[in-house]
Amino acid sequence: MSIFKKIFFSILILNLSFLSNAKAIPESFADLAEKLMPSVVYISTTQTVKTSGRQFPFQFPPGSPFGEMFKDFEKNQPTERQASALGSGFIIKEDGVVITNNHVIKDAEDILVRIGTKEYKAKVLGADPYMDIAVLKMETKDKFKAVKFGDSDKARVGDWVVAIGNPFGLGGTVTSGIISARNRDINLTRYDDFIQTDASINQGNSGGPLFNLEGEVIGINTAIIAPGQSGSIGIGFAIPANAASNVISQLIKFGETKRGWLGVRIQEVTKEIADVEKLKKPRGALVASVGENSPADKAGIKAGDIILEFDGKKIDTMRKLPKVVANTKVGKSVQIQIWRNKKLTTKKLTLGRLESSEEFREKKTKVVKKEEQIKSLKITVRNINNQDITSRKLNKNTNGVVITNIQNQSPLINLLEVNDIILEVQKKSVKKTSDLNDIVDSIFKKGEKTLLLTIINKNNRRRYLGVKIN
Hints:
- This protein has 470 residues and is an alpha+beta fold.
- Helix content is 20%, strand content 34%.
- It has ten helices and 26 strands.
- The chain is elongated and about 75 Å long.
């Protein structure tokens, strides 16, 4: 056999092997759609919206007796109107338990669930605004065909998926596509970890299921990117089934969620911060502050620590930590690896419950503005005083300087704001304005290129900021 024939047969064998391993393109989704349709529901909600102010679509001419007659009515009489919303959902229990998005049923007074030609009233068993999930129960003794969750972790980019829902109130609409990406974070919810798909999703599809070819739910359709409200452009997002299942189980069992709580405020580890802390690359979650009497506080975790691993899971980015903590069982004993003083340290703690914490119910504190100068940074500052501590509800032992002005040429412009409080520079305490001057001048004289500032921002949150200087 010639060398060319050998090459040809080798290529042919490789191609046949590839084709045998690849999944066949479906000829039709008809059988799958027919099987799944009875488990997909269409949701409509109503709520009363109160409006006040002028109610007439016209104005009476000056001096008209009708104007005086109706003046008080126009100003003082609120009116009510019925607002409605549409969405989708799917049945997970034969007794009529339905899953949808929280935003579909939020503030609803009446919820109707339609299956085929029948409509049923439904009540909310539990809702979670943080992951945008709601569990409903149809008020009926009828039995329904339920669907099951699949393992969304096994879903791969390029796999075929099918979406069924109620776009624009049309009902019974089937679309297909592939998984375009995994682990998408679009800053929509506190725990973003979306499956991205190009299966057509539009308004009204929210809360509907995303199926794999085995007819298992691997996602809950939640959001789309639609520039100018133009409708689907092939970029839709679904909550993965594995993440949703844990929340749904809690909502059914308790009517609320029970998420793990660490008790820290965190921020991103930038390249500048990684350089100062001698990390090889930016990774982990930087602890900006620690809640008093929180699990982290009791374990000895401090502001400035960088959390690199939680309960055996690597924390590659800041956004990963809240997801990992939330999915960890309340009361579990966990180990945390932190980077402190340029070396690795391990801490052990018992995880608390987020929903029981003060952090969960925290409200923003009002900021009191004031005005006074640091030439090297081109900013004006003043010493913190008792009025700052009282009005901003700071720890009574807080020391630092308050920024009152930032010049346009300052290296801190667009990074800090007036009323931010500088607590430390290069982790050296700043108790008064002269401390800040001395520390910064020393850093400039040494020729260092980066400042690491510890601040309390105008929202009273402690943060770390890496700043490049010339």
